Amino acid sequence: MKLTRFALITSCFVVTSAARAQTAPARVDHAEHHEFVITDFHTEAGGVLPKARIVYGTYGHLNAARDNVVLLPSHYMANHHGYEWLIGPGLALDTAKLFLVATELFGNGSSSSPSNTPEPFHGPRFPVMNIRDNVEAVHRLLTEDLKVTHLRAVIGFSMGAQQALQWSVSYPTFMDRIVATSGTAKTYGHGIVRLEGQIAALTADPTFNGGDYTAPPTKGLEAFGMVWAGWLYSQEWWRKELWRSGSPAGTTFDQFMNSFRRRFSADANDYILQARTWERNDVGATAGFGGDVEKALRSIKVPVLYMPSATDLYFPVGDARYESQFIPKVEFLPIPSLWGHPAGAAANPEDKKFLNENIARFLAGGAGR
């Protein structure tokens, strides 16, 4: 998982949906940058955003039938480049055949966020969003902007997995398949406690000032990063000093550990908004299920490839195993990795190979149980 917010493409451009369906080169493995705006967007909690902006990227060519689309919803504070470990020659997603739509969550700093929305919704006054709000907004993007009414698949990592599983409950026949890596259909109590610990570390900085800061709450961001570091990788990953594999020669443990104090440099209110979205993830709260997550999972109609990381501390494999028993057409396939949460986003070459091979097989029609 990326630990800092990706930089936006500076030379962005907008392509109309009609232009996307015209003849294009056989392969496009770079992203085109787009934006979709919804007027008076109503959130599930009752808030209304006058202008809800969704930034997204596309890869490949939308065919004339508009039926070659795969949705890639972003994870925590990521932008639309967060799935490029799956995209390209020899990888699971071939842009010579598929049109990929990679969307950015509300709160990431480029889609509508506390940091980029004017008053009366700036900063801490930005409405709380949940996963369903993001799914509903992207459903409108697909159907209204791209004129897409069916997807080949929804593939998501982490908060993207939360969205993928919510898609399978909210729109059970909108896609052919679901892939969820390092994420669950509900954030359970322990996950909420962890997120509250990170938020508490950030907001304890006096500079935070209830979210109305005039300068970044630097000490709070440093504390936030250290809490994040303690949960990101597995205990065995730390014991075996696997952090050395991606560090410059001569890096000491203290240097690596303290680098997390500088990893989080985006807007503090954006971090908190997305953490609150993460906390509220619960497919059981979807209308018609009365808060029953098991009933919601039983309603899923399409095959699901459920790939938790075997050593994830954010989304423990036990939570995913519990959920998998209620999904009718599930293939439950833990990622055999010591890399904790980031294993679900190809944290190392072995994880990348395992993910790409199994996702490619699944999309090609490999049977689940």
Write a concise synopsis of the structure shown.
The protein has 369 residues and is of the alpha/beta class.
Can you walk me through this structure?
- The chain has 369 residues and is α/β, with parallel strands linked by helices.
- It has two domains: 17-187 and 283-363, Rossmann fold (3-Layer(aba) Sandwich); 191-275, Rna Polymerase Sigma Factor, Chain: A (Orthogonal Bundle).
- It contains eleven helices and eight strands.
- The protein has helices at residues 17-20, 131-145, 159-170, 189-203, 218-232, 235-239, 253-259, 268-279, 293-298, 317-324, 349-363, and strands at 32-42, 48-60, 69-73, 99-103, 151-157, 175-181, 304-307, 330-332.
- An eight-stranded mixed sheet has the order 1-2-4-3-5-6-7-8, with helices on both faces.
- A hairpin with a 5-residue loop joins β1 and β2.
- Residues 1-28 have low confidence and may be disordered.
Please give the largest β-sheet.
8 strands, mixed
Under CATH at level 1, the class of the largest domain stands as Alpha Beta
Q: Enter the CATH topology name of the largest domain.
A: Rossmann fold
Query: What is the N-to-C succession of helices and strands?
Result: HEEEEHEHEHHHHHHEHEH
At the fourth level of CATH, the homologous superfamily of the largest domain is Alpha/Beta hydrolase fold, catalytic domain
The number of helices is 11
Approximate shape: globular
User: What portion of residues belong to β-strands?
Assistant: 5-15%
Head-to-tail CA distance between termini: 29 Å
Q: From the coordinates shown, what is the CATH architecture of the largest domain?
A: 3-Layer(aba) Sandwich
What is the multimeric organization of the chains shown?
single chain
Summing up helix and strand content along with how strands pair, one would put the structural category as: alpha/beta
Number of strands: 8
Unreliable stretches (pLDDT < 50, length at least 5) are 1-28
Order of strands across the main sheet = 1-2-4-3-5-6-7-8
Radius of gyration: 20 Å
Give the overall pLDDT as a whole number. Answer: 91
* Count of separate structural domains: 2
Helicity level: 25-40%
